[in-house]
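Progress against Task 2.4 (sequence-to-structure conversion) is shown through the following example record, which the project officer requested during the mid-term review.
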Amino acid sequence: MLPSGNDGAHAMARFIGDKLLTQEGATGDPIQRFVQEMNNTTASLGLQNTHFSNAAGLYDADHYTTASDLATIAAHAYS
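Structure tokens generated for the chain above:
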């Protein structure tokens, strides 16, 4: 079994979300701001079958994707 990476995902989301909020002069939950940016990115990539509700990929009824969308996300991340 592999150890969970949820703590790393949350640390990254908190760090990047805080930077985004600071750049915008805004306040709020940095993790939620990061998740919002994840959804903004999927929208800009034209992915209509993906919606994120948390940074770690934990189950939520409103957190979904497809294999095709994941392939597009991975290609974008690797570019």
